[in-house]
Amino acid sequence: ILLCWRGEGSAVRGWLACACALPSGKMGQSEESQPLVGGSTSRPRGGGGFGVKSVAAVCAVMALYLLAPYLRPSAQLPGNTVISMKPAPSLTYRDENERLREQIAELQAKLKKRQEAKDEKEVAQMGAAAAAAAELQRQAQQPPQQAVASHPPETASHPPAASNASVGRAAYRLTRELIRSRCNAHNIILVTFVNFQRCDYGLTWSGHVVRLGLSNYLVGAMDGKALELLASKKVPTFDMESGLTTADYGWGTKNFRKLGLRKCELILSLLSAGADPIVTDADALITRDPTPFVMRLRPEAQVLVTSDHLMATDDAAAESLELPKRASSSAWNIGYFYLHHSALPAIAHWKRMCEEHPDLWDQNLFKDVFKIGRLRFETSGADAIPQAEVDKRLFRGYNGTVTIGILPVATFCGGHTYFVQRMPQRRGVVPYSVHTTFQYSGAVGKTHRLREAMLWADDAAYFDPPGRSFLTYVPVVRRELLRPAGVMGVAAHFEVVHHQLVQLRAAFLLAARLGRLLIVPPLTCGLDRFWAPHNGTIPGSDTRLPVEPCPLDHVLDLENGISKHALPDSRLARDPAGRPLGGLEGVLREFSFLNNSRTPDAVRQSLAFPDPPADLSAASLAPLAAATARVLHFARMPDLYATLPPADATRVRQEMMWYTTLWCCSKPAAPKTPGHIFYDMFFDVVPHTDKSRREWTEPWTPKFGP
Q1: How far is residue 214's CA from residue 188's CA, in Å, rounded to a whole number?
Q2: pLDDT per residue as tens digits for the range 443-482
Q3: Could you give the CA distance from residue 565 to residue 269 in angstroms, rounded to a whole number?
């Protein structure tokens, strides 16, 4: 009827044909009565042919066809009566196809627009990367710049010399007047603290601040000896007598926990004086003036803290805070943080928590305090934070009363983002701080990493030791084993590193026999190192494999290995106990040594390029021993250990087997079993005994433990 009313004659003819072909009985059958695809095609029950109902249906359709002209919309009927008929629109297949085509065209336009935007962004990123690379190349062609000032200028004004006597130390009390005098025009003061054992860190920290031309800083002395040393070096200091050890605190020890409480007390004193401090650990170096960064976030920001997040939450976040929801979930690292004096109530609460829980880590308690009342990120609703704070990527804590921000990991760097991922180096940006976290070999390892990065303040004798010369070589790396199919296995990683250890083993022996300090070339590691199982990189990090240059503490035990085990027949100086005189500094230098601006030209330009000796006999070493060049540079380093007589080789193994450390970790083969594997300086010697006292009577293979 509808077809006739619409005047669709062709459709009516189709219906007529259908009506003529219909069998008697029902005009159609249910879906269930039709054969399945590939099933039987036999005619369903009911027979075929015309019936009375079929004829009646045909007659009805023909009648409607004849009446169709009078049933069209707005058709004039007899009597000049006009009936305006406006039926509800019905979709035909053609209408539906048009609609789908329009939707597809719309989606294609949106995708094209997105792709164009993405292309523009990628082009911009590529342009920025190219510009950064060009700038790095330009910088590389410039003379090396001094990275660290050794100490403040002699003209600096200081109180009288400190001493253990109470009269002398009284002048170094941390008073409100001293704090206010050291704040800059924006009320910001930079503060760290050290004990006597770690005064070298205090001197390096202050050296960077001086290099930046800043004077708004103080270094706390946690014991009398530290106070005397810092004052003698004209470092602006104050007495922070803690009653703790003057030796190394050791992470997680009782003294380490007590140190957190002393830190709380110091910060409360600074805030109570109305100052806005940036407080750092002494191994969190200030490498760029942070005041401009902080001022962009004021007046809203009250707490700005670094984190152990290992990936930037925004590629453009080098000069803006990390995205709050993503970055705030990681550990907050209070080795570097900014506090506005208005955050005093929350910090007082933190101090009380540290007093009540002396066995808990002050860093964890710090975050726990600010999580009271939950962290708030809402941009709408009853708990919505102001748009000005949202725009600056701030969020709220401490029951919604304190605004907090997570500092960008690309420029406020931890040990992993700076030394392993090399995030600021890849982006071509100068970091605001470098904190030696995520490292191994204790304080010795921290110092060596900072030396590798040319961030450590050594005295002149380190770069030009009287009567001492140097030796280095070009390492051969088995690059065919590095991610050959896009992946890196544990066995291949050990092959890559062990092949370099054979060369390093020979270089240590040659340097010891010649009485020269070894400049260790950069290592290449196929896998990263962590304290927990991983698949080559730390979960959640942006590490690119291979790791190169690989930090030396990833492979060598700098704290208890090289520093304490002198090689036999060495011409290097030893202390009365037979250990290398000067520890690690008495054996080697970092790979960047010759690129450091503090290494004098008399060393850097005094080079010789001899062939390596055939063996370590006196006759073979004679020409090298007579060389006067300050640096012997070998184009290759053969396996000189293999040339030693058996007795000499045994004595060398007994000392050098302690040089290496371990790689960690794969998922252990069984629960509660080790997942780490020790490097073996003598993996290629069969038979031999390793540092764990395991006997190897067959070729070395990666083995968990012990």
Answers
A1: 11
A2: 999 999 999 999 999 999 999 999 999 999 999 999 999 9
A3: 46
